[in-house]
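Why should sequence recovery work at all? Because a backbone constrains its sequence more than one might expect. Tight turns favour small or flexible residues, buried strands favour hydrophobic ones, and helices have their own preferences. The token representation captures these environments compactly. In the example below, the structure is given first.
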């Protein structure tokens, strides 16, 4: 599983439920952050190159790009150059469109994600008769990682991100908010709490993501495979190892007990 940081843990948690016996390598490309501020060409080249080196070194049976920005930009390229199944993570527009009662959906993501043609295509295919309100909120990545490191997310930052989606009149009917970055589900409870108690949103607004669906897809592609874990699951980082080691307690709760430099 590849992510720019550790937002992909929200996907890993669901994969653990679907495939409890599967050995997993989690790769955090801290040295490449932030993907959302790079050009599409830069992101595609980095993701393809990094996944290529990872597959050469660790020989995984499947790779998951646990980052919405990387997936919406590089998924096609990576599938062309690697010979293993590649599963991406993209904003959960389809389930949001199926679940909405009002037809108004919010999408929180990074700037790199919400501007992608891939997202335009998802909207055309699954929500053409809905209203999709997009907002870039990269600051929520920091709040999610703050929480993972034992801190408290800033309610004002969360409120500002949510408020920015309600500037259009249609937003008054919004009943689904897509968490279009794998970091964002890590602060789902805080976002929902701020929405209701700080901003006065209806309590039935749903904050959704695609992690469970991604896990089901991975389980389907690996159906019939047998697994044998020869050692502890590991996480590697392209960035500063000491910075990553500070996350050891939370990584351990996801079954990762070995941390290394990539």
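From this structural description, the recovered sequence reads:
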């Amino acid at each position: 599983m590849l992510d720019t940081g550790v937002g992909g843990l929200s996907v890993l948690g669901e994969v653990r439920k679907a495939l409890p016996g599967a050995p997993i390598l989690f790769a955090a490309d801290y040295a490449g952050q932030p993907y959302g501020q790079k050009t599409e060409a830069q992101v595609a080249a980095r993701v393809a190159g990094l996944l290529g080196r990872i597959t050469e070194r660790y020989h995984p049976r499947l790779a998951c790009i646990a980052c919405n920005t990387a997936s919406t930009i590089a998924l096609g390229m990576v599938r062309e150059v690697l010979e293993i199944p590649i599963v991406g993570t993209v904003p959960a527009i389809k389930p949001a469109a199926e679940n909405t009662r009002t037809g108004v959906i919010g999408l929180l993501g990074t700037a790199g994600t919400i501007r992608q043609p891939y997202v335009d295509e998802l909207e055309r295919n699954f929500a053409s008769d809905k209203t999709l309100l997009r907002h870039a909120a990269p600051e929520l990545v920091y709040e999610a990682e703050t929480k993972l490191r034992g801190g408290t997310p800033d309610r004002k930052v969360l409120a500002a991100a949510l408020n920015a989606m309600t500037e259009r009149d249609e937003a008054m009917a919004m009943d689904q908010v897509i968490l279009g970055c794998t970091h964002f589900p890590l602060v789902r409870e805080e976002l929902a709490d701020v929405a209701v108690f700080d901003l006065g949103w209806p309590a039935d607004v749903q904050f959704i993501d695609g992690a469970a669906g991604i896990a089901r897809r991975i389980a389907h592609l690996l159906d019939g495979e047998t697994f044998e874990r020869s050692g502890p699951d590991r996480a590697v980082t392209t960035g500063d190892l000491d910075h990553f080691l500070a996350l050891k307690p939370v990584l351990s709760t996801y079954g990762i007990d070995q941390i290394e430099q990539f």
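A few observations help interpret the result. The CA atoms of residues 68 and 89 lie 5 Å apart.
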